[in-house]
Design goal:
Chain lengths: 384, 120
């Protein structure tokens, strides 16, 4: 990768340790993706905020970095481990809270917008089509590329952090050429968000960087988010397009059999001790829609809803938060399903959810059993 | 021999080889270096001090922190080698200073689990 003279100087340490570290990361990712140069990016979204995922080493790294680093472009951040408004209800240990607080402060010091959300695309207006951004959260990167028509690679926590510090990213992969190399024919009829989640999970395993989906006319927001999250979980793919006439050389079918296979891999329980909705966090549209579905009903067991704080406040102002709470839901902000310390084996054995991404991490990281079903069935079976 | 060097270094050691991609978030215990994903072909094995061969990294962007944590906890592989590279593995290895190589398909196939090899 060709660097400008100034970039070279930064890499050699002439502009200090922070920029040197950032350029070392961008050089490696640039080399890895055969980039010829760096391009300016206009928005970075960083992951690596939850103490449960980054641990002591991550917390110490960020504390050190924040002494000198400042973000050069708008930088939003992923969810952390808990919602400070309700953390006392969950009995987290003092060490966790202390370390999480340190991480929050480090990001604040570097100049983040304290979004603590995995759906920045629903909290902020999207920039113009074609804008270069650097999104680390995988569902957000895929959503930005596929729905928002922005340009980002499926960034890592460190590559997005380096882009936040430098305002640049290697010009390669999806930034340069996002044409699909595989086309998947959707053969399952009457799909809901769970079906699209399973399609994404399957697509992530077989497709490379960009994939075309045929046989689907349109998808609503819930289906899009489900697909983006699961596609990001199982592979390296960073974009999908709905296209019945793709000229991609490889063609694959997603039928009932493939869907059942993916479902059986992730669904391990007949029912859950707890219901969780989110991963990705719910946006306002999904919350208003859910409030409508729950009219006159109430959950028979505990139901946690994860949503961004900005959206919870809007929902509260508009009355939807109150409606959801009346139906027995607990609203949690600044955190999300994946690896939250709020849902662990200590308290429950199994979880009911419609999130494929959530199911994957519940199963593999938290060691919980998962009962997967679409939201319509969750409302049907778990409320009275 | 090596197709591409992403993070430089000279290493000599014993290979642990997987045929499955790795999601560094959620499949590895960052304190011990053991693979915790029961469905992974390296399940239960420790990657500490190995030359870790695997096809490529998948899934979470936060996996880069896991790689950095493995190094900080002294349980990291001494090097990694892949068939293709993803940004999570590349950036994690860059920050943790773990040598990272991309191997040609022939070379990747010729190296077996348990082999003693040199890279770099």
């Amino acid at each position: 990768m060709e660097l400008t003279r100034e970039e070279e100087k930064s890499l050699s340490g002439e502009h200090g340790e922070v920029l040197q570290t950032a350029y070392r990361i961008l050089s490696a990712t640039g080399e890895a993706t055969d980039a010829e140069r760096l391009v300016p990016i206009h928005w970075a979204h960083v992951s690596g905020v939850n103490y449960n995922t980054i641990g002591d080493a991550g917390e110490e790294f960020l504390a050190g970095l924040s002494k000198k680093a400042k973000f050069r472009v708008r930088t939003t951040v992923n969810p952390m481990g808990y919602d400070k408004d309700s953390v006392e209800k969950f009995g987290l240990d003092e060490n966790f809270i202390q370390k999480q607080e340190s991480i929050r402060k480090s990001y604040k010091k570097m100049g983040v917008t304290p979004s603590f959300s995995c759906i920045p695309y629903e909290v902020y207006d999207m920039p113009a089509e074609g804008t270069q951004v650097a999104f680390a959260e995988t569902n957000a990167a895929i959503y930005a590329n596929s729905i928002g028509k922005l340009k980002t690679n499926k960034e890592s926590a460190f590559s997005a952090l380096a882009s936040a510090i430098t305002g640049k990213s290697p010009y390669s992969d999806l930034r340069k050429d996002d044409s699909p190399t595989m086309s998947i024919a959707m053969k399952v009829s009457d799909p809901n968000e769970l079906t699209f989640g399973l399609l994404g999970y399957f697509a992530g395993k077989v497709a490379d960087k960009s994939v075309a989906i045929s046989g689907v006319k349109s998808m609503d927001k819930r289906c899009n988010k489900s697909m983006c999250a699961s596609l990001g979980t199982s592979g390296t793919c960073g974009k999908f397009v709905l296209d019945d006439n793709s000229d991609a050389s490889e063609k694959v079918d997603f039928d009932e059999k493939e869907m059942q296979k993916a479902y059986d891999e992730l669904n391990t329980a007949e029912s859950g001790d707890l219901v969780t909705l989110g991963s990705p966090q719910l946006g306002l549209e999904e919350m208003t829609d859910l409030a409508e579905m729950l009219r006159g009903k109430a959950f028979k067991k505990r139901c946690l809803i994860f949503c961004p704080r900005a959206i919870q406040e809007q929902a509260r102002h508009l009355g939807y938060a109150g409606q959801l709470e009346s139906a027995g839901c607990e609203l949690l902000s600044d955190c999300c399903t994946c690896l939250t310390p709020l849902v662990t084996k200590k308290d429950v054995d199994s979880v009911t959810t419609n999130s494929i991404k959530g199911a994957y991490y519940y199963k593999n990281s938290s060691g919980l059993d998962v009962n997967l079903k679409p939201l319509s069935e969750i409302v049907r079976d778990e409320t009275s | 021999m090596t197709e591409k060097i992403i993070v430089k270094g000279n290493v000599k050691g014993k290979v642990i080889k997987s045929n499955q991609p790795i999601n560094f978030l959620g499949s590895i215990d960052k304190k011990t270096g053991s693979i915790t994903d029961h469905e992974h072909d390296l399940s239960g094995k420790s990657i500490k001090d190995s030359i870790l061969l695997f096809p490529y990294g998948i899934g979470s962007s936060v996996g880069a922190y896991t790689i950095y944590s493995l190094k900080s906890n002294n349980v990291a592989p001494i090097a990694m080698a892949c068939q293709k590279v993803d940004l999570t593995v590349a950036s994690g290895c860059a920050l943790a200073n773990i040598p990272l190589f991309i191997l040609s398909p022939d070379e990747y196939d010729s190296i077996k689990d348990g082999d003693e090899i040199s890279l770099g």
